[in-house]
Amino acid sequence: MSSTSVMKGLLLILATAHAFVGHNHARRSLNPEKVLTRNKEVKGGTTTVTIKETTEFYSGPMISRHTKLMATVSEDSITEKDNQAKDEAIVEPVTGNVVFLLPSNADQIQSKFGSRSPYGNPTVLEAAQHLQRKIGWFSDQLVNGQIVVLSSSSEPTQDEQKLLQDANAVIALHLSSSAETEYAESLFKKRRQRQQDEPDGLNFCQFALECGELSSNELSSICGPFDTATASPSSLLPWTDVASGKRLDERMKGLFKRWTSDDFTYALTLFFNRFSGTPIDWCKHSIDATWEKGPVQNAQELYSMVNKCGDCVVKCVQDEQCKECLDALTALDTTDQVASYRTIVSYESELLENFSYCILQKNNIFNCDAKIPQYPKVKPMTQFRGTPLTRKVARQILIGHLDDEDSLFDDSNCERMPTSWKVAAGANVAYDQFPSQNQIFYEAASNQPKNEETGKQFLWYDPVFRVETIDGRNVWCKRHYRVREGPTIGTFYFSVLDNGVVSNEYWTLVDAADDLSYIIFHYAGAAGAVGQRYLGGLLCTADGSLDPILDESQKGSTSAILPKGPMVDHVYSKLRSVGIEPWELFCVDNRVDSPAALDAGEAPLDHFRKDVLAEKEKRKSQQ
């Protein structure tokens, strides 16, 4: 990367080369004792899905049978029904499970999640129930989430105790009474002993969060082979599994402390990816030089980077701004989407884009292949203003309030504005927190009216948002997405080149008010070349405020928590229908008169659109 990061990589490679010679990991072998394979066909609509079923038999208490179902589709053209048939036919193997241990009053006490949402803090039980669902989505259903609520009058049942003792991961949350913490201490002690005694103890972790003062060592964390309660000399040797567990323990705790569902769930997927023996697609890739990769892979990646992109590397490290960005990224774990994306947008430049494009996108030096997440399954709205939604109207809803010839202007009295929508609140911790988020949707110049219902049309989407850089500046960032219509009306494929890396996204139009006072999007995306996947959702209004979903008597409220009302309840219900809890939302600061907004200056809203408008006028004059 920069001279600093290149040197860092070289030192890491040299340091690990000697250490790895003759080193054997103490990991339990994951080779099956017996393998049975058979093929079967599942019919779905006009498509045949061939299922290859492989059953692997293991010894040991953790896994007795592991079944994999791999699908091969016989046709490229798959209808929505066919997709559904395929989804129902494929059953993923279970890699592990996580149990959330909650206090007896979990439905009454507030958690630390949702501190920046218009909903407020959910109860501990509400938060755990959503994390239970989300760990399945982040792991592609490879990890099961379960909940045990302690009783104030009795100990857990035998089944619950067995579940807690056998679980790969146990997360104790908000235990406060002496009886609850004593039980947790006893449980953690038994699990600690089992982790030490059993050969599959690598696949164990336990954390106690917000559980009093943690006066006892028994509630200290375990992460794989690393136990914070027992100092091991191996943790000082960075190439060992114990040291790897220590690094992961520190990282998971840092993510937990953010108290967002994205970070919390991601921390758990990191554990299963590292120590379960099964890669988790959400986090299996890294573009950093790490001890976990080993010296050979680190050296290969470094050589490939210098050999294929040497000119870009030299130009970037010789430029002060580009080098400063690389140095800042070197200090981060780049799989931390929150920190890495804020760093990148703080130092955007053509040199940085060329550097990233060559290394990541063009040559894919780190062999990343992230795909758009398939969970949760989200359905688009089907009705608008009492009639079935059409492709044309779906596009017009996206265009929204923009002063454009393709806008949905009629008797709805929509105000013509320079933007389609403004984001009032978003659900992704990395990408939806930026202030002053403007959305501009408009038809491409090449669109033909005769194709409006065939799925051949496409739009442009230009998000223009303000960034408060890590060095204190306020700047505008802009992107230019190509938007194609998806397989179902109300769904869309988005693609963009963002700082040299292509991101592909699948957006769903979840709900829109008849008067276009608000709109709800869900999106799932992936930046394949850096191995990152993400989910999110947006609640948008014309002016970026939440007033349009409030009753008349509530508009203009200065309360951080939205007052309840029929429209608010409806919006929350729609968000929940696509897997977004209202406490996951981050309110966006869209004030135009704030010191930061004034410092940034006028937003470049027409930066890309002006050329498309000119092309449209040119085509009209030639007709």
Automatic annotation (TrEMBL):
Keywords linked to the UniProt accession: Signal
Any GO BP: xanthophyll cycle
Keyword Signal: yes
A molecular function GO annotation: violaxanthin de-epoxidase activity
Domain VDE lipocalin intervals: 304-543
Lineage, opening ranks: Eukaryota, Sar, Stramenopiles, Ochrophyta, Bacillariophyta
Signal peptide region: 1-19
InterPro entries per UniProt: Calycin, VDE, VDE_dom
This protein's record includes keyword Kinase: no
Protein name: VDE lipocalin domain-containing protein
One Pfam family this sequence matches: VDE
Highest taxon above the source species: Eukaryota
